[in-house]
Each structure stands twice: as C-alpha cells, then as structure tokens.
Protein: DUF2380 domain-containing protein
Amino acid sequence: MSLIVGTRRRSLQYWSGRPRGQLRQTGVTALVLLAMAAALPSHGRAGEAGKALLALPFGYLDTSGEASDQKEAHADRLKAMSTRLTDRLQAGGSYRIVPATPGIIACASNDQDCLLGEARKAGADLILTGAVHKTSTLISAIWVGVFDAKDGKRTFFRQISFRGDTNEAWQHATDFVAGQLQEEARQAR
Structure:
C-alpha cells in the first residue's frame, strides 16, 4: 500500500521540510500517520548497492512541556543529525546521497506528486525522510521512512526511542539509525 494516498499524503508532506521547532496541530497527526505506516507491509528493501537516496530535512516536534526555550539547540542538533546521517550512509557505500535542493523542499511541502517527480528528475531512486519527537525532558523518538521515488511506496520504516537531550545522545541515535539503514541495504543484496 502506498503512503501517498488519501490522508496519508499529509504525513509525508509534514516530514519533508516544514519549519522546525514549532508545535503544529498537524504534527501530532503526522506522527500518528507515520507510525501507522509502520504497520503496513513493506514493499521491497530500503537499499541496494549504490541506490540514489534523496535525503529530505527531518522535522521536529517538541511536546515535552519544558519551560526553557531550546529551539535553537534542537535546530542545531537536527541539522547535525542530518549531516551525520547522510555522511554515514554515503560512506557505507550502499547509497549515493542526492541533496535536497530548495526547489525540492518547497515542492515537498506542498505537493506529493511534485516531490516524486522532482526526486526522479534529480536522479533519486529512494526518498529518506523522518522526524524527531521530544516527548519528555529525557526521552525522544526518531521516525525514519524511506520511500520509492517511482511510486511512493514505503520500503523502510523504523521508530527508535532514545534517552538524553545532549549532542552525544543525538549522535548515538543517529549512528544507530544509520546502522539500521546500512543493515537493511546489506540484506537486500
């Protein structure tokens, strides 16, 4: 089943470049929809040798209720996470990273069909997207999805919880996600 149908269209749009650090009404719905996608059967594997992977910026949702404003720190960590993840995936040899241009990001936030078309034009076989959800002072979760650029079908999904809101905790979680994606690619060979 494709993630790009009906109300699910909104969830992938959420992950693909909306402003970060803001609590949005659609954010919780999007997280629920992506979590529901995990229950759907996968169509294929996330990676095969040398697959071109379009890496979209991850979203961020903070429902921890902390009094201190950590938007800047979380925006920095999210950017570092994206860079570290794509660097690790590229170094692993299973993926060739296709950068998300501003045009692709703008397209992704407005029109799913446009995103798929632009991803294919950029040479992408797969689209990587996701979000970090901070649920409490010390607990966060990462949702990661990989979708086929031809038809939007989900090929990989993980929900990973991690403890700690430090640079080191985020780096460790990023390395774990990269390892999961690399393992999936190795199994697909």
Notes: The radius of gyration is 15 Å. Residues 8-188 form a domain with the Rossmann fold fold (CATH 3.40.50.10070). Confidence is low (pLDDT under 50) at residues 1-45. DSSP finds six helices and six strands in the chain.
